[in-house]
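Please review this one:
***
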Amino acid sequence: MIVCIAEKPSVAREIAKVLGANTSHDGYMEGNGYQVTWTFGHLCTLKEPQDYSDYWKRWSLSALPMIPPRFGIKLIPNQGYEKQFHVIERLMQAADGIINCGDAGQEGELIQRWVMQKAKATCPVQRLWVSSLTEEAIREAFANLKPQSEYQSLYEAGLCRAIGDWLLGMNATRLYTLRFATAKGQVLSIGRVQTPTLAMIVNRHFEIKNFKPEKYWVLSTLYRDVVFTSTKGKIKKPEEGQAALEAVKGKDFTVTDIQQKAGTEAPPRLFDLTSLQVECNKKYSFSADDTLKHIQSLYEKKLTTYPRVDTTYLSDDVYAKCPQILQGIIPYAPLVQPLMGKKLKKSKKVFDTSKVTDHHAIIPTGQNPQNVSLTTDEKRVFDLVARRFIAVFYPDCKFSTTTVMGEVEKVEFKASGKQILEEGWRAVFGGQAASADDEGKKDDEQTLPSFTKGEHGPHEPSLAEKQTTPPKPYTEATLLRAMETAGKAVDNEELRDALKANGIGRPSTRAAIIETLFKRQYISKVRKSLEPTPTGIALIGVIQEELLKSVELTGQWEKKLRDIEAKKYSAAQFIDELKQMTAQVVQEVMSDGTRRMQF
């Protein structure tokens, strides 16, 4: 008998249906030579300190650092989990073979491997790797099973991540709670990714609080109902601005130069999880966690592909399936129709196997969404994914940019306008920008009237007093971007891709990190802005170890985890470095008697 183990009952049901395992038992399905069972996400976890030693049971500074000689796992104490585990254990110990059907990623690999270890499974294990839950995709994945050993580095990366979180989290949380907690029962939670994320929010808070606005003046003029702005830019002294204003008053405005430049704009990238969370937060105010739940539900309802991804590319082999996918999303037939009957565009910005590791970008599966019951929010998320997918096969948007230069008494002025010549992919979005990121650009898309070089006439100059503005507080959207790029503000998509290797957290965990900060009451939400609480500010203030709060350093550790997965870095070396780091943090805090939590 072959035992298949999935990560959720719903996924197990889809697999069982394809395999013909249609007989239900308590905790598994059976039939056609297969038994299909499931976990509920994590059934096992790393042992807690007290599981290794009674000495570590009581929180004590003298017991730190806690570094087990060998890490072990245990069942999560939960009656339902334990009952399901014993079903799995019985099936695995009698199995001729096991197929690991866990979610295809680091976390999914770790969940299933731990269960197999705890169940003492000894038979051969194969790995199912599937990117969508359609019957076709599942059958194709079963036809391409691989030995589980080929995914050893994926497991090692997940294990190192878990051990790293344990070492820093357990030790630093006890250390800072015992040294700095100000109230009885207060726990100061420290996390490998959680604390640098909080530090970003706190640092931004102080950048805003300590910001000193500076006044400046901008000279502009209205000529033929078009606002021209002085090329002087920001004028620092009011008397200089007033002198320029007086110099141009009552004198004719003369058009000195007109330049028209044709340009093209490529369709927006397909979604990875982070960009989808950013878009949903900006457009619909969904939290990152809400978006993850919606897209996970769409995946389980077979409408979209695997969601926990960090690439915006598709592998080249997906191209052949795209016409069928487009035809399957029936509600979008009017948008798909112009693409049918001709060869679909294949852009290197969309199809590039070298940019795809575990999974490709999030796209529709080609199932008709009208056949599935969806919530209003799920429909919104699916609509975003579907339109992005359709748009990549449309032509580029063509536009012309017009720049008009003018002069009054040797003071230069400039006005720009953008005219859409051919909508191209913008037609998929009703002629608008595809992303909430582009909303602010609409003002630049004014169409200028026709000007002639040398023309002149009266104008209405004005001098506006302005002041510099502080940086904006983080929203969930901008925080997700900052986590992805190790705190660097980057608008360019290609540059963002290059920085992803040093981002903190994984696409699948960033939402949970933000939720944890809310739960710990380290941050709060004011409208859409994320603000640190007094406790969050005080905690970051007392942490002087850059190892714990530096986004850049944490990003470097994240890159090492990715390198372990890619077999470019040693898991053993990573664990040794973590142990040294933990011991160093404990020593530094214990030897500093001057620090206090400042509220």
Observations:
- The longest helix spans residues 152-180.
- The mean pLDDT is 93.
